[in-house]
Design brief:
The protein has about 400 residues and is of the alpha/beta class. The chain has 2 domains: about 140 residues, Rossmann fold (3-Layer(aba) Sandwich); about 210 residues, Dihydrodipicolinate Reductase, domain 2, CATH 3.30.360.10. The protein is about 30% helix and about 25% strand.
Length: about 400
Amino acid sequence: MSEEVGFVTMAGPKASGKAPEIGVGMLGYAFMGKAHSNAFKKIPYMMYPPPAIPRLVAVAGRNEDAVKEAAARYGYETCYTDWKQMIKDDRIQLFDNGGPNDAHADPCIAAAEAGKHILCEKPLARNSQEAARMLEAVTKAGVKHAVAFNYRFVPAVRQIRQLIETGALGRIYHFRAVYLQEWIMPHYNMPHIWRLDKSIAGSGALGDLGAHIIDLGRFLVGEFKSVSALTRTFIPQRPGADGAMKTVDVDDAFVAAVEFENGAIGTVEATRFAAGRKNANCFEINGEKGSIRFNLERMNEMEVFWVGEQPKETQGFHEVLVSEGYHPFWSNWWPQGHIIGWEHTFVHEITHLLDAIVNNKAVAPYGADFVDGYKNAVICDAILESAESGRRVEVKY
């Protein structure tokens, strides 16, 4: 660690002496800024003893009144309306980028060049060329880098990864995943927002939701080999802030058939037009020894089926409540059955990154780094290319 990092003495029976203090600079203060700030504040007393104590140094955003309000609300010491000035702040060791997709590349590259460690929201970039520039910058700088694919840090998802690693499922045959939401459907009267603008977002449901299940496919099953895809934009124009109609130039939905390098096949699908679906990130994995199902809307559970389970009269999928002390991440939380929520995934994810920073560990393979973010962007580009060309596309990194 650099000499600027201070130390905070830990007390209590589980204390291990001193935990380093890591200064945090946050770009963005809306949805993800709120989620990340909540995690930073929880880590010192819930992930105890913590690998580091996050110090909320600064938050940056374009709207001066809004960023001042965010700083006061979450407890940041300083606020900036220019991220370039924030990156120059020597109190900051970790740059957390929760800005819109078009604000990922330049700030992260500048932060890397300034020697800051980086956590960037997903998707890492609007396309693979931009992601490659970001990966090159963090590699050259030698800083720790992570992409916020937080669903890797759901206890049930991590438990599924461990079952696969031990060979409990045997050879994997299928991975099918959907990410379904409804918030952009006509009955919500959603205007034209930045997520519907390709120049800002890069893509639509693909980058917003599909990137998550693509990452889970890579995390749980393996590398993608090829894709064959369709995309659709159901509402081509929406009213802008001034009332004038603006073109929607990103996908509202996509579906892709995928081939994995290990021979497994599957499908990935995402839409923001699934009536009744609030945040249905669901996947099923079928292997030679069993199958596992997961639904984020019931994130403390998974369903499992084991081939040849006896007695045969009770064979079938079993619901497993993933809340025991021996399940991943649970030793820091509550007695069994006292469930945790979506926001806790960020607590786990950021703790993992802090541990990597303080103890010079790799973020991968359990956390997603910029290599994972780049590969995810390559797959997203291949899906868009396949949908446009009508042909199957090989995934080439």
